[in-house]
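Quick illustration, no need to memorize.
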Amino acid sequence: MTSSLLAPAVGRRALVDSDTAAMTRGLTRGVCRHLAETGHAVLTEFKLPNRRRADVVALDADGRVLIVEVKSALADYRADGKWREYLPYCDAFAFAVGESFPRDVLPPDCGLMIADPWGAEVVRLMTLAPLHPARRRGLTLRFARAAGERLQRLVDPPV
């Protein structure tokens, strides 16, 4: 992976919130901010070809795909084992968690980002074999279409 994925973050801040949905939104925002600041195009809730929905998908300038799975609470992590189904669709993978998340429960060979609503820090990335060119092309087209459709809905919301 390029060093752009390892660029320094804004800094870590404690995120204190008992509302899991709000926590997830905050962590996702921080991850997206960090990735955008490091030159990535970012989409959230991105539907993969296997019908799974990735929390954050980012494309770097070279077209490499990073998937970030946001986990706001230990119960959220324990109840959700589908993250392995994301791996065939990315060049790198990471979990994004808050500062107080118990990191020892996460697989040590997986990527890790520490996030808050204002930014994120890449601790490590799980770098995978490069995607097959046909799969990369398909994902890139899916990414572009999703981005275009979302932008159109912002510019001209459906009635």
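Residues 133-155 form the longest helix (23 residues).
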